[in-house]
Design a protein that fits this description.
This protein is of the alpha+beta class. The protein is 45% helix and 24% strand. 16% of the residues are buried.
């Protein structure tokens, strides 16, 4: 009986010990569960934060995409604007390397798309008598003072070449901009005006001369006819200005006289020539004629002047 009580006592103590261990283990599990719950809450919070960050990144990405599209559109607009103006433009950096250029530049310099990045002094120019582009560009970079020159291309077109510093919105100099503006029509107008002024000056000088003085262009059209010519040949100024020089030449002399006209147009030195010209009434008059070329400031011949005097028999 005593052994039974001892056994029961021991079993009860072991059971109580097991209960204590189970209770302790349960508390530990409870603690672990709480920690896991706390970790889960932190993970949930992190997930929400990550989701918020992701949404912000998506917003920023959309904004950047919009800005990229805007910049692309602006770049296209700028390229079309530059191309539409017809002004040939070259952008050059500090080291005189080509950054970009408009298509019309190819008429002035032998540029192709693969030339971007090459030094400008490697490019062959189609300009006449202008070899200082590199020096002029470097001078603008050094002094930041814009420069302009009138230059002529091999196809006879004239341009105003401008070299200016390239400034950013922050007023930082990042190179130069070289532009070529076509002024061919203006040059032609200037030449025409110069010719007209020359003819007017000549007309003023010869108007009252006793000799017959005429001016004709290189196609033989009469441009000026003074009173001496009216008296000598009988044609009024109005009638003469509607004629050609060949209209006043006898048929048998036209070939020879036209050859002299060509010689004068080539600025050869001509001595007085004895020849014949037609009077309004049809008579053939013996005259001495001195022809000379009229040369403009550009160095080109634009007309022929003749001084004609009757040879008295």
């Amino acid at each position: 009986m005593r052994a039974k009580d001892d056994y029961l006592q021991t079993a009860q103590e072991e059971l109580e010990g097991s209960n204590e261990e189970l209770k302790s283990a349960n508390e530990e599990m409870q603690s672990v569960n709480e920690e896991l719950q706390s970790t889960n809450e932190e993970l949930e919070t992190s997930k929400e934060e990550l989701q918020s960050v992701n949404e912000e990144l998506a917003t920023v990405n959309n904004e950047l995409q919009t800005k990229v599209l805007d910049l692309s559109r602006l770049n296209n607009d700028m390229n079309n604007l530059l191309a539409g103006t017809g002004i040939a433009t070259i952008f050059v950096d500090h080291k005189l390397r080509i950054l970009r250029f408009t298509p019309t530049v190819s008429q002035i310099m032998n540029l192709i798309p693969t030339d971007v990045g090459r030094p400008i002094n490697h490019i062959v120019s189609n300009l006449l008598n202008y070899e200082t582009l590199v020096n002029d560009t470097q001078a603008v970079l050094n002094t930041l003072v814009p420069l302009e020159r009138h230059v002529q291309a091999r196809d006879s077109k004239w341009y105003t070449m401008g070299i200016r510093p390239y400034r950013t919105l922050e007023n930082v100099i990042e190179g130069v901009v070289i532009t070529y503006t076509d002024i061919t029509e203006m040059k032609l107008a200037e030449d025409a005006l110069e010719k007209a002024v020359s003819v007017m000056r000549l007309a003023a000088v010869v108007r009252d001369s006793n000799d017959a003085i005429t001016v004709q262009d290189l196609l033989g059209r009469i441009l000026a006819w003074n009173q001496g010519a009216v008296r000598l040949y009988g044609f009024s100024e109005e009638e003469a200005l509607a004629m050609k020089a060949s209209d006043r030449m006898p048929a048998d002399l036209q070939h020879e006289e036209l050859a002299r006209l060509i010689a004068a147009s080539q600025a050869r030195v001509l001595t007085p020539q004895k020849t014949r010209r037609l009077h309004k009434n049809g008579d053939s008059i013996e005259v001495a004629i001195v022809a000379s070329a009229l040369i403009g400031e550009s160095g080109q011949i634009y007309a022929i002047s003749t001084t004609e005097r009757r040879i008295e028999k």
